[in-house]
Amino acid sequence: MAYSKQLPSSPQYQRQKAQVEKTLAKQKSYVQEYRFPRTPVQPTIPEQTDARYQELQNRALEQDILLKKAAFNRLFLFLAIETVAVFVLSLLQAWHTSGFALEEWSFRLLLACTIVQITIMLSVAIKHLFPDKLDNEGVIKDLLKRILK
């Protein structure tokens, strides 16, 4: 709609004025007045229970994270100690210090079992840390196939 200079007495001006008034009246009918309540609105029981339920879920998730963190820290400490112990046994086997000598097959078995144990423990830890992210069974099977070749 193009607006040009029009005299207030012209019929076109009157039609446009009537159309604008009609549009404004229609828009005013859509507008609702909002009045603040005199007393504060108390949350309903379902809203309170939903908030409490959400709070309990958040606490449960925090506790779960803390427990997982503590368990995996202990697991990695155990794996580090085990790795150091196997390394020390390997050095003793290589140097034959203080009469320490394992037969070759038993030493290889010890190393293979230790590597498999560490691999499986780490894959279980990853599976529990990221349950939806990886296909851990396929990863474990593939890793075991590579080790046992």
Q: Which range does the strand content fall in?
A: under 5%
State the end-to-end distance: 82 Å
Main pleated-sheet profile: none
| Strand elements, count | 0
Mean pLDDT value = 78
Residue ranges: pLDDT <50 for 5 or more in a row?
Answer: none
* Silhouette: elongated
What's the total helix number? 4
Gyration radius (Cα, Å) is: 38 Å
Structural class: mainly alpha
* Helicity level: over 70%
Oligomer description:
single chain
Encode the helix/strand succession as letters: HHHH
Explain what you see.
By secondary structure, this protein is an all-alpha fold. Helix content is 73%, strand content 0%. The chain contains four helices and no strands. The chain has helices spanning 11-30, 45-95, 104-129, 136-147.
Q: How is the topology of this model organized?
A:
Layout: H1 11-30, H2 45-95, H3 104-129, H4 136-147
Helix pairs in contact: 2-3, 3-4
Give a quick rundown of the structure.
The protein has 149 residues and is an all-alpha fold.
What characteristics describe this protein?
4 helices; 149 residues; mainly alpha; elongated
